[in-house]
Amino acid sequence: MSGALEGLRVADFSQLVQGPNSTQFLGDMGADVIKIEPRNGEWHRHWSMRDSFLNGESLSFLVFNRAKRSITLNLKDSRGKEAALKIIQSSDVLIENFRPGVMDRLGLGYDALSRIHPRLIYCASCGWGQDGPYLERPGQDLLAQAVSGVLMLQGLVDDPPSPVGMGVADLTASLHIVVGVLAALYERNRTGLGQRVDVNLLNSILSLATQELSVYFNTGHEPRRSEAGMGHPYIGAPMGVYKTLDGYVVVAMMPLGKVAELVGVPGFEGIESRNFLENRDAIKQKLEPGFASKTTAELIEILMEADIWAAPVNTFPQVASDPQVQHNRTITQFDHPTAGKFRTIGPPVRFSRTPSSIKRPPLTGEHTVEILKEVGYTEEQIAEFSRDQVI
Predict the structure, then answer these.
(1) φ and ψ at 240, to 5 degrees?
(2) What CA–CA distance (Å, rounded) separates 233 from 47?
(3) By residue range, what is the domain housing residue 282?
(4) Other C-beta atoms within 10 Å of 271: how many?
(5) Same domain, yes or no: 346 and 261
(6) Which residues are catalytic?
(7) Closest Cα to residue 372, out of 94, 9, 72, 78?
(8) Are 54 and 156 found together in one domain?
């Protein structure tokens, strides 16, 4: 069966995470994603989280670049730029996440391209926005977390600002790219015209904190992190993380009296509040011995029987063996010619008729000749490009 986006072609100029993760989603769903890279490959081919390289292949590149074809082009050479233009003109969508102005300086900005390809959906993603006082600043996930205030929501009251332990701004922006592109494609079906779509890390992570920021905007109350490890700076007991005999569990917004009764802690009988803000740290500390006297498995059985919102806190090894994770077939794998067998997280969305598929990431420039032939170049021209280091 074909993917839901079969027939859609994407010219992918992006690198690092926000752009490549979005084009990977599109590729998983059947789009033909042409990854246009510098001759030595995009940035992530040369850097990897934890400096993890598998037989020379960047683990981070492999994570975000499934289901794509790779062509290498020297865009500063007029012939390389001409080849890029041919690919763009054969594409429905262009996605880039350079600093603002880079594509314009290359002659590949939206204004220039829309004149020759008015049906093109052009999505630009950056750190802060395409204009404004931060225009010249570098944009990166941790920087966006900091400016958004998100670092002030994690940890205990006396902890320093605590980053989220994953690229939450990048990953959210990648989803917003996909949403924006698909919406623009839907609109193009009505009008026949493409348009520019803009996404940035700052707006994307601010959208994640909509509820928290809105509490402050409308009440003036700043979030206060707890002393005892509550689950949220704006939410009261019994929500939080609790130590067990052999690990941890979390409890969400549940009737305080019921939770206390189930873990054997007296003194809270009849309290129905799910959000007890007064003395929330002291209340949580009174509940903790009840949790600490039982194993995680015992607590989950007790709490599930009473339909309490609770879950074990998994380590990464426990995630891999979690029965629901296994049932969902969330962890997938593919064979790579250099890296070997690679395990990763598969597409999160399922389709009944047009399933997504897992295709390995490309080697640097693996499809250069194939793509150039598709857009009209002869073998003699391609040989000349190789000799002159255009490709």
Answers:
(1) 160, -175
(2) 35
(3) 248-312
(4) 17
(5) no
(6) 170
(7) 72
(8) yes
Q: Look up the pTM and report it.
A: 0.93
Q: Say if 270 falls within a structural domain.
A: yes
Which residue in 34, 166, 17, 45 sits closest to 88, CA to CA? Answer: 34
**Do 370 and 284 fall within a single domain?**
no
Residue 276 banded pLDDT, cuts 50, 70, 90: confident
Closest CA to 9 of 109, 124, 88, 77: 88
Q: Does residue 304 sit in the same domain as residue 357?
A: no
Domain match, 150 and 290 both: no
Q: Decide: 95 and 13 in contact? Cβ < 8 Å.
A: yes
Per the structure, the count of domains in the chain is: 2
Q: Which two tokens stand for residue 377?
A: 């170049």
Domain with residue 73: its CATH number is: 3.40.50.10540
Tell me: the pLDDT tens digits for 101-128? Answer: 999 999 999 999 999 999 999 999 999 9
Say yes or no: 334 and 269 in one domain.
Answer: no
Tokens of 332: 């997938």
**Do residues 123 and 50 both lie within one domain?**
yes
Q: Are residues 83 and 141 in the same domain?
A: yes
User: What are 132's two structure tokens?
Assistant: 């404004």
Q: Are 58 and 37 in contact (CB under 8 A)?
A: no
